[in-house]
Each structure stands twice: as C-alpha cells, then as structure tokens.
Amino acid sequence: MTLNVQDIRRDFPILNRKVNGKPLIYFDNAATSQTPQQVIDVIVDYYSNYNANIHRGVHSLSQEATDAYEQARLKIQTHFNAKHSHEIIFTAGTTHGINLVANGFSSLLKKGDEVLVSALEHHSNIVPWQMLCERTGATLKVIPMNQNGELILSEFDSLLNENTKLVFVNHISNALGTINPIEYIIEKAHSAGAAVLVDGAQSCPHLKPDVQQLDVDFYVCSAHKICGPTGVGMLYGKEEWLKKLPPYQGGGEMIAEVSFEKTTYANLPHKFEAGTPNVCGGIAFGAALDYMNTIGFDNIAKYENTLLDYATEQLLQVDGLKIYGTAKEKTSVISFNVANIHPYDIGTILDKMGIAVRTGHHCAQPIMDFYQIPGTIRASFMFYNTKEEIDTFITALKKAVMMLS
Ligand code: PMP
C-alpha cells in the first residue's frame, strides 16, 4: 500500500480550519500531533456510552470500560512487541514514565554509582535524573555530541565503566531530529552491566520499536505525539525491573491489602497505576495506534523522509539560513535560524500567515548552549503534511525574512 495523503487529510478535521484568515499549515508535530476523526469518535463514544470507573465496578458500564482499557493495553503490548501485557504501564506521558523510573532507582543507587545521559536530551530526560543523583549521591555524566548533532560513540564507550548503572537516551531528538543508534548504546551499556531507558517520545510517531528485539530495559512515550490525546502515555519496563522497582505513588488500585500496620502492593501492572487512570485516554491511545498501523509505519517513514528531503533542499535556498542538526540518520524535524533574526519574530509572522512552527529552546537548553544560540525555529512534519504546504511555508518564510531584515 502507498500512502494517499489527500485521503488521510480528510481524517483530520482540524486541517480544514483557518488561522488568521489563512488555511492552517501545521508544522508543530514534534510538540503535539493532530487527532484523526477515528480517534475523536472513540473519545466521544466513551463519554457518550460507557464512561465509568474501572477494575472495581460490578455494573455493566464499569465492566465495559475495564474491558476497553485492558484491550488498549494489549494493543500497546502488541504494537511494541512486549513479552507480557503487565510490562505496559499506563502513565500520564513520557515525563511521568521517566519520573516513575527515576523515583524507583532512588532505592537502588548509591554514592559512587554513575548514570549517563546524552547531550541530546529533552529536559524531561535530564531533570528527573539530576534529582535522582541529588537524592542518592550518584554522579551524572554526559555523552557528548558533535556539530552535526550526533552522539560521539567513542566518548560513550570510554564513559562506560563498572560504576555505570543507568544510561538514558532519546531514540530521536526533538530539537534536531537525530535518530540515535540505540541498538549500539543498549548493547554496550548491557555489557558494562548498566540498564537503559529510551525516551521514545519522538520516535513512536515515525517508527515502530520492538522492545524485545532492542532488548531495552525501559521505553517511554506519550500518546499525543502519535495522533492520540494528551495526558496519557506508556512505560514499557522489563518484568524483572518492574518487579524490582518500588511503587511510585501510593493510593487506590495499586494495593493488595491495606491496614494501618502494613500495606502490600498489587501485582504488575497495577502496582504502578495508583488512582483512577485516564480511562478514556488509554482507550483512545489504543485507537491511535490502530489508526497509525492501518496507514503502516513503513509507508509513514518513507513519505515523511521525502518531506524532510524536500523541505531541507528548499530551506537551504533561503539566504542566510542555517540548519542545526545535520545527522545522517534523521527524522522529519528541521531546526534552523536565518541570519541574526530572532526565531520568535519569524514564528510570529509565520503564525499571521496561518503557519504553526515552534520557536525557542524546545526544552533542550543544553543543545542550544552547545550551538551558542538562544533557540531555533523548528518545523516538524507528519504523514498528513504535503509538499505544497512546504512551498507555501518557504514563500512565507522568505517574506518574513524580508520584513525583518
Ligand atoms: N522527550 C522528548 C524527546 C520529547 O519530545 C517530549 C515532548 N516534547 C518529552 C520527552 C516530554 O513529553 P510529555 O510532555 O508528553 O511528557
């Protein structure tokens, strides 16, 4: 099957709207993706027909909601090829998943232990580990990057030693689009005895990770990057790790028995799912994966690569434009600046022309510090974007640059 972008665009009602009187061109997909009607319908159906609390209810609505929620967990398990469904923990998103793991490691790390973070991380995959190091006395070390925005693997090799307990790296950088060689990183980290957490927030919309094949210890993502709703995501953890980690939050749902003397915890996955979850969000997350799998990740990757190549070629024609992040392995994210014009000024003018891009540090200040810039303009594409939209964007960008020069 090839991808029919005009058919696909009809699935996304938001793509019909105008912004500032101009047809919306949405190039802020790395921040959040848009939602197809198929997923919106699932959300409406949930609240119209079977909204209820799950797992405890004896009545029909509760059972229907529980079944749909657990069905979604199975879809996620199948999508990521986890060995067990209880290795899939519903979270509020990538940030929540990382904090859950970082909190769990508080009781497993001690002074003298080392943890490695990549120079390419989102703040979500930096700050929780810094907090962990403050709590435990472990040391945070950084795998450096080169000018192309690629990790320097020889430096990674030499940072690894018998004290390294954890390595965390994103699969794809949200600021530059670099696809990191996580297979290599996981293999090397394991041979040094360290566990690996991969932040999949940016990879999940573009490729289909196989957690067993990767042999990754933890993998996290957010549904809102994958055509699903905000406020829900998943943590995959190997069973052995999830059994070892203490619960993150206490409350209802995560217990076996409670008394004032002692509480025992529920089995996986409920041990990590305290309180009423985002039931509708979880079900819609499953529907979003169904939607994307119907299009097919091979088709998505192939099409998005053509958009990336085309946009890169066109952008490089703009006088004074510099692209940050020129890795060989890259996804459909382009970060750039034009001459000395502040990214925010360009972003504001583009918005007036109906074009949504991101400007700023993209929650990755260390990357901006590396390039000694305050921020960039970031255009990020999904399978529902078109070459025609890129043409309009380039014309608008040239106009904005002329106005600001
Ligand atoms: N990591 C990366 C690489 C991201 O792109 C994002 C979202 N911008 C996050 C983590 C955080 O995701 P969320 O805000 O959904 O928790």
Automatic annotation (TrEMBL):
Q: Name one GO molecular function term.
A: cysteine desulfurase activity
Family per record: Belongs to the class-V pyridoxal-phosphate-dependent aminotransferase family. Csd subfamily.
Q: What is this protein called?
A: Cysteine desulfurase
Cross-referenced InterPro entries: Aminotrans_V_dom, Aminotrans_V_PyrdxlP_BS, Cys_dSase_SufS, Cysteine_dSase, PyrdxlP-dep_Trfase, PyrdxlP-dep_Trfase_major, PyrdxlP-dep_Trfase_small
User: Top-down, what is the taxonomic lineage of the species of origin?
Assistant: Bacteria, Pseudomonadati, Bacteroidota, Flavobacteriia, Flavobacteriales
Judged by the first EC level, this protein's enzyme class is transferase
- Catalysed transformations (reactions): (sulfur carrier)-H + L-cysteine = (sulfur carrier)-SH + L-alanine
The alphabetical list of record keywords is:
Pyridoxal phosphate, Transferase
Domain of life the protein comes from = Bacteria
Cofactor section: pyridoxal 5'-phosphate
Q: What does this protein do?
A: Catalyzes the removal of elemental sulfur and selenium atoms from L-cysteine, L-cystine, L-selenocysteine, and L-selenocystine to produce L-alanine.
Which organism is the protein's source?
A: Winogradskyella flava
The residue ranges of the Aminotransferase class V domain are 25-393
